[in-house]
Amino acid sequence: MVDNRYATALVIGCVLSALATVYLSVAVGTQHWYRYCSPAARGEANMSELRALHDEFRDGEPDEKLDSDTLFRLNGTLGLWWRCVLVPDGGHWSKEPRDVKLVTECRSFTLPQQFTPKYKEPGNHNSGEDMLRTYLWRCQFLLPLVSLGLVVLAGLIGFCACLCRSLSPTLGLGVLHLLAGLCTLATVCCYLAGMDLLHRVSVLPDHVDGSLGWSLYLALISSPLHMMAAALLIWAARSHSQNYYRMTAYRVA
């Protein structure tokens, strides 16, 4: 028999876990982790330059320097698996900016590209590998996958515990959720540190501003939700265990 307090804690913990998982899944699948606000194109020369930059971004080989310059100049957004730019619909670069409808064009990072080394000077392979940026980049896309994997594992264990009508695995579920929250928090930290280092080696052009996007905030919110779920599950497991042992000792006595 489970005390109502413990049952309530379990239900609230499950709801918090579900919310955190949904938030993190949406954050991983969207590209709005960081966004750039660029000035509108002015003059034929500027438009031609932007068109050439976009053509290289769309058709050329992936390159950190090219990708960064394109994102800076074309109101780009960057995520864990996507990079997107705003371009004129239908390729009408010759029209005035106020007459052009802008559409979002995205390119995804393939798995091999996620493991591509970062260099001290972006785009210059002779400058030497920047180990810190390389491993920050790899951690920022591996850690959320680890976090989601831990939650899925916790869900499977919880489902089996429900079938067996046992509260014993709840402590383990709490630990898994705590690790998931820490992995998510580490993801955000790695991403912010990586973007800061990128902007140190790739200076933003004049009148271009960068800001954090809503996808990053979703990931940031999911971390404390996982930790609150972990706290409730651990409390319910330990309190129920202590109560059970006290009742057993009383019956023996």
What does this structure look like?
This protein has one domain: Butyryl-CoA Dehydrogenase, subunit A, domain 3 (Up-down Bundle). It is built from seven helices and five strands; from the N terminus they run H-E-H-H-E-E-E-H-H-H-E-H. It has helices at 4-29, 44-59, 64-73, 111-114, 131-164, 170-201, 214-252, and strands spanning 34-37, 77-78, 82-88, 102-108, 209-212. Helix 1 packs antiparallel against helix 5 (131-164). The longest helix is centred in the last third of the chain and has 39 residues, at 214-252. The protein is elongated and about 70 Å long. Mean pLDDT is 82; it is low at 242-253.
Keywords:
5-stranded antiparallel sheet; 253 residues; alpha+beta; single chain
Distance between the termini: 21 Å
CATH architecture call: Up-down Bundle
What is the helix fraction of residues, given as a range?
55-70%
Largest sheet: 5 strands, antiparallel
Portion of residues in beta strands equals 5-15%
**Strand order within the widest beta sheet:** 4-3-2-1-5
CATH class: Mainly Alpha
How many domains? Answer: 1
Poorly predicted runs are 242-253
Topology:
Layout: H1 4-29, E1 34-37, H2 44-59, H3 64-73, E2 77-78, E3 82-88, E4 102-108, H4 111-114, H5 131-164, H6 170-201, E5 209-212, H7 214-252
Helix pairs in contact: 1-5, 1-7, 2-3, 5-6, 6-7
Task: Give a short summary of the structure.
With 253 residues, the protein is of the alpha+beta class. It is built from seven helices and five strands.
